[in-house]
Amino acid sequence: MKNYFLFLVFYFLLLSPVAKSQIILQPLSFSKQPPSNNNLFRRDRVMAGQSDTLSLPFLDDFSSISIFDSLWLSGAPVLLNNRFSVNQPTKGIVTFDGLNSQGEPYDFSSSVTWGRADSLVSLPINLSYSNSDSVYLSFFYEAGGIGDSPDVNDSLALYFLDSTSTWIPVWSWIGIDSPAFQNVFLWIRDSYLYNGFRFKFISFGNLFGQHDIWNLDNIYINKNRKLSDRALKDVSLLVEVSPPFSTYRSIPLNHLRNHKDSMVSDEMKFSLSNYYPNDTTVNFGILFRDALTGDTLLHDPLNSVSMDSLSTAIPFNILMDTSGFYLPDSVKKISMESIIYLKNMDTFPNNDTIKSVSLLSDYYAYDDNSAEWGYGFKENYGAFAVKFVALDPDTLSQIAIHFPKIWEDVSNRNVEITVWKKIDEKNKGIKESIIYSQVEKPGTLKTLDSLTLFNLDSILIISDTFYVGFVVPSDEFIFVGLDRNTDASNQTFMFIGNKWMNIGIQGALLIRPVFNRGISTSIREQIVENYKTICFPNPNRGVLTCPESFIELQVMDVYGRIIFASYNKNTFKLPENLSKGIYFIKEKNNNGIFYQKIILQ
Q: Which pTM value belongs to this model?
């Protein structure tokens, strides 16, 4: 496990007056978030025993769950994912770390406990061959990737089960950073050539969380192989494609409808590997569709690129015509799949299609809904703030933040959920402007995916540039989830050592502004145009005072239904059977009609 604490403290020692601050990039201690946009699965599936041995070829490029289940012993605690590598050979990898099959540390007792961690064990294979049949096993491995890199005390080891049922170590590698995936090619011979051969990978490292990561790809066993035959001849897509938006990963659907031409990018980014020994023309299509309805939003089936022989992880930027991009008016949200599919490249068809998912609903997000790290600080009244630009004026109703559990439970610590209109990004003397702040506890409210959802107790009409985040009013570590596969570092800031600065590391914090959740469209549109403070106190316990004279005053629920009306009383009591929550006051006076959001406690 590399010491990222020391690295970041050293980095910020250079940025006086931050010398006494502690900023840490820390692996997650728990990872219980559900499978997300990039197909993350932790293996804990029980399957029936298999009495027959497998026949050659044995091949897994980890692009398919169904193939995984048919080749490996059930209950393997590794991660089948497309997230933790750097320039992986093909779509899908398997990741070894210090978390068990439930996403919890192998050992809770100490943050420095070391030992045997993840394992991956094959089902029995029929290797009834002779040495002359040239049976070889090959695989690609990577130390660290975008996760926590193992150090020289950590290792990944490969074992063969011989004909006497003894596990024999045949290969291992210590935790030295690998600049790219490395290819290993091993001859299987002598006592390993029998019906029932098995092999297994085991990692050794820190057992307290997602530490000391190793990635594997393209495990391949076959006979009649040569040294030049190091990978299956195939063309493969790699990591997920980028969504087609120029700035955000997710955008409120109503905002996107009004700004489709400026927000939908005409550029598609993806990567390919060509393992053929000759130059290849790759034909492919691009498809955007709504996973909820199956509606096609855009389809461009005729594209091609040329690839050199044996070229891996080659990035491509393809220009496309997005003038026909379709957003149906009848839906309130779209789960948009951005898909690239290869044509006539079916050697291993599971890696010929790749996609990303963007939820177009009621929030902005830079992140891909997955945190690979926790990023935190220890600074009294330190803060994180993420910059957004609202495409349309709208009502901010919630803020969602992912507070991962690292080291200890922080669910009962106080954080100040904050919205800023301005911060001094570049330390030019700009006066900070806070437009909302409330004290909350990270673990007490309902969640949005893997994020805690904080309801705002006063109405905020947001337009143009704003910042959302939190302040920690104590000298205690608080971590926020960091997506390392998306870079929004230019839009992400922290307040450390009495000044604002960029976070200084590639990634996107899982912090999102949520608009209009639980508020009817008709009320929302009127509030945005005609909001004022009418009554007090707010929040209240059912008794309101409205000092201005009015013609009529109504109290409505979030659906616009009238639950109370007054024509002449300035102080009144709401019905006792009302549930706690959000309501709206509609006031009609000689100057027009005005609205106020109130909280009933």
A: 0.81
